[in-house]
Amino acid sequence: QKEVEQDPGPLSVPEGAIVSLNCTYSNSAFQYFMWYRQYSRKGPELLMYTYSSGNKEDGRFTAQVDKSSKYISLFIRDSQPSDSATYLCAMRDSTDSWGKLQFGAGTQVVVTP
Amino acid sequence: GAVVSQHPSRVICKSGTSVKIECRSLDFQATTMFWYRQFPKQSLMLMATSNEGSKATYEQGVEKDKFLINHASLTLSTLTVTSAHPEDSSFYICSASFPGTETQYFGPGTRLLVL
Q1: Which among B2, B44, B108 has CB closest to A103?
Q2: pLDDT value for A98
Q3: How far is A65 from B26, CA to CA, in rounded Å?
Q4: Cβ contacts (< 8 Å) between B4 and chain A: which residues?
Q5: Which of A36, A68, B106, B107 has its CA 20 to 30 A from that of B10?
Q6: Residue B11 in contact with residue B30, Cβ under 8 Å?
Q7: Is B97 part of the contact surface with chain A (CB cutoff 8 Å)?
Q8: CB-CB contact of B33 with B97 (8 Å)
Q9: Three-class SS of chain B
Q10: Backbone dihedral angles phi then psi of residue B14, each to the nearest 5 degrees
Q11: Chain B nearest-CA residue for A85
Q12: pLDDT band at residue B72, thresholds of 50, 70 and 90?
């Protein structure tokens, strides 16, 4: 079983809809949680970073972490065709001194006009 | 802020040649840099962790003599694919740890095609 599980999609939504993405994990030592957006043939871009449980909002993006359920989410409001990309969740074990990240498989999102 | 560059963005080479890829943190100093490999429609696969001034730490299954990593300064790490073969063709991405945070910022990636 992978440490981080993420549905690869594709997830297709109409423009203006809310995109809901999530990841589950098994390692209770994960304390730092990130969401990256990756366009085709580009490097990942950091979207959101949260520490431990709670919510964080940045513009149209909201990240949620529920450590008791080992579940994190990313919501994109008022989705645009430019949001079409692959979204990767990433997590860091607080005991890992190197700072290595564990990634989900990535969910491909398609926002149709 | 937090910009990471990679050079070259794309390289085509003949089998048996060596290829060097540079990764630079442009506006911050990175004690730790990471090298990843990504196959089409797959997630990132960590190859090695690079710390400034010390030897890189390779993940299991990654040949250290094949993929030479040098982290000579706080802003530059290089990956050299030695005696490249077609199976080394892939998308190589570096990242740098941003000081004071637990995040990594990624470069734009280098697409390697070995003929």
Answers
A1: B44
A2: 79
A3: 31
A4: 43
A5: A36
A6: no
A7: yes
A8: yes
A9: CCCEEEECCEEEECCCCCEEEEEEECCCCCCEEEEEEECCCCCEEEEEEEECCCCCEECCCCCCCCEEEEEEECCEEEEEECCCCHHHCEEEEEEEECCCCCCEEECCCEEEEEC
A10: -85, 150
A11: B41
A12: confident
Given this model, what pLDDT does residue A95 score? 85
Token pair of A88, please?
Answer: 């990767």
| Interval A41-73: pLDDT, tens | 999 999 999 988 889 999 999 999 999 999 999
SS3 content of chain B, % helix, strand, coil (to 5): 5, 55, 45
Cβ count within 10 A of residue A14 = 9
CB spacing of A103 vs B32 below 8 angstroms: no
A85-107 pLDDT per residue, tens: 999 999 998 888 778 999 999 99
- Pair of tokens at residue B64: 């250290």
Residue B54 is predicted with a pLDDT of 85
Q: B107 touching A, CB under 8 A? A: yes
User: A45 at the B interface (CB within 8 A)?
Assistant: yes
Contact A106 B43 (CB under 8 A): yes
Provide the chain B residues 3-32 that lie in CB contact (below 8 A) with chain A.
Answer: 4, 6, 32
Q: What count of residues does chain A have?
A: 113
What is the tens place of the pLDDT at every residue in B84-95? 999 999 999 999
